[in-house]
Amino acid sequence: MDGPRASSLRELRPDDPTRIGRYRIEAKIGEGGMGAVYLGRGEDGRQVAVKVVRAELAGDRTFLARFHDEAANAQRVASFCTAQVLEHGEDLGLAYMVTEYIDGPSLLEHVSENGALSPGMLHGVAVGVAAALVAIHSAGLVHRDLKPSNVLLSISGPRVIDFGIARALDMVSSHTRTGQVVGTPGWIAPEQITTQQVTTAVDVFAWGCLVAYAASGRNPFGQGSFQILAARAVHAEPEVGDLPPSLSGLVQAALRKDPGARPSARELLLALVGGGGEAAVTTELGESWTSPPLAADPSTTARDGASAPSPPRPSPPRPSPQLPPQPQASPQPQASPQPQASPQPQASPQPQVQPQAQPRPQPDPQAQPRPQAQPRHSPMPAAEPATRPAPEQQPTAYAPPPRPWRPPPPGRSRRNTLIAASVAAALVAAAVAGGVYYLNRPSGKTGDAGAKPAAFPSGPLLVRIDTEPGWPKTCHADIGLFTPGGAVRTLVGGPSCDTLPERSPDGRLVAFTRSGGGSTAAWVMNADGTGARKVTDIAGGRVAWSPDGTRLAYMGRQGGAKQIFTIGLRDHKVTQLTDDDSAKDDPMWSPKGRIVFWSKRDGAEQIYTLDPDRPGGAWTRLTRDGVRSVDPEWSPDGSKIAFTRGTSEESAIWTMNADGSAARAVTSGGGHDMDPGWSRDGRWICYVRGATSDPVLHAVRADGTGDRVLTPAGSVLGHPNWA
Known about the structure:
Blueprint: E1 19-20, E2 23-31, E3 35-41, E4 47-53, H1 55-58, H2 61-74, E5 85-91, E6 94-100, H3 107-114, H4 119-138, E7 151-154, E8 157-160, H5 166-170, H6 190-193, H7 201-216, H8 226-235, H9 245-254, H10 265-272, H11 277-288, H12 298-304, H13 413-421, H14 423-427, E9 431-432, E10 435-436, E11 461-466, E12 477-482, E13 488-492, E14 497-503, E15 509-516, E16 519-526, E17 533-537, E18 544-545, E19 551-558, E20 561-568, E21 574-576, E22 584-589, E23 595-599, E24 606-610, E25 620-621, E26 629-634, E27 640-645, E28 652-657, E29 664-665, E30 674-678, E31 684-689, E32 696-701, E33 708-709, E34 717-722
Antiparallel strand pairs: 1-2, 2-3, 3-4, 4-6, 5-6, 7-8, 9-10, 11-12, 11-34, 12-13, 14-15, 15-16, 16-17, 18-19, 19-20, 20-21, 22-23, 23-24, 24-25, 26-27, 27-28, 28-29, 30-31, 31-32, 32-33
Helix pairs in contact: 4-7, 4-10, 4-11, 7-9
């Protein structure tokens, strides 16, 4: 299904809006103390989350002023590991805020359904949420309500939502009652309960609770009423369970009662990645993150005959270094002192702190209940996990006694400054339109700390040369060679339409698609353009070489549907590999033997592989997020796949491992990026950006850096492929 999973959405009721501002409302995601959250769609087709404030709050001038101020501040937050705030306004008497829609379960949902996170996912959540807090704090905001339902596990990594809006409720005189605390019991810091000044340290405390919960499925302060949880947060020691050594000491430090003794978010991040700056952050996320499984897909399991590939085994956790002593960040006061918590629960119709929902009954009375899952983007408080006896505390790699942070010693400030400046500029070079994604390290040592950036390839590219305008409605194209910074040389031309050149593995031949006279065929020529000859009629699209260069894969028609075939160049033996009625295209043969392609068999275009030596055999689905994914292209060593992801108007070039893991963007998208092709050393990716009628060739390193325009002025080139 394209977009959100049906299980997390609710149909609209008569009293729900059908349009807010520029956005058409399609479904309801959830509801909470501030209002409702809807799935919306913009005029450009982009899905968004629209948070609509309750009518009674929208009539409060104090609240509205604070709400819009905080929404404007939230728009400044770098969109690394967060859901980007797009706009805010008022319509039909309703105040609203629009954010990027993140498709993926919340941490609460995932742990409720699957239990504690694997070591790799746990480390990814710890790093990603810490990075999000650095971005939020760098914008002068405090989240105040960080909890598992506000962390979404997308295909690109953990994303923090609902930051910068809790303070608006805190400032409403007619709706903030004496004894009411903004936050969710089990995740709020002691100083929020005892009405001390709220600083960024409250988010660090919530980070510690969240990581401990993700590792065990239990809140470190147990479950119970607000009064019980508040008392434990203020007086009791947390039960963090059996955390990995690389996290245990950091979590314990984050959960200190004294906010001044906690590390800052940037110090957490430095410790988690070994203090290595932006390269270390992107490397840690890229190596540790495995996207969570989506809802069970019976059709895939039944038809594929095989389950999804297993996630890669995480690297052993590295010992956490001593955090560099540094003063706690001192943001400006975020609010007036908050009133003392009431000894009894308030009977407010929409309290900001509510007793935790009771866990679902379990068949086994000894089993520990898991929390109820909340809808994504929902501001509702998370349900509380059960309490278990505290295990015997084990020595950890980092557990210094509580103390204030002191200025860093000489020689460490520059490293810290990399993170402190801003996440967008210093942590990553990957802030992209519509989201920020973890970058892929290419093969070899490119992307490692201290390694030189990969030099731009010196060889030419095979290209489609448009000799007249009109593509793709009408085609007048030749096949040629283009050397960036040099000339364009035609290899084969004429009145026919020649497109999609593909170099053979040994570089001696070029396959391409020729159309004309009402038919389309696969052709092969020598690398210098001589000896062009027809191989077979096809149903359009590209052709691909087998690893040994003796066969071609192509699209043919059988029974009214396009199917994948192979043909031998010497014996002309034809083998049909697929026989279903789904739309499919872009077959590409891996150097290791499998064929990758896209199909709409399970909804939107998704990427699959199959074994060409087993015609009619099971497919393996690699992308599972329902976002359009096409143009798959194997890296030269067969370890990665580059592909086009997103709607045609806002698509970007992504890469992923051969098993579908570690998917991430390498271009910013938003400009119709498509048709990726790898350089021979696997360190660069060429691609096309812009309208299909006026394409511009680009190239970017496989780690997302060094993006550059290649097309000379006056030339219209497409379908690039390094020769």
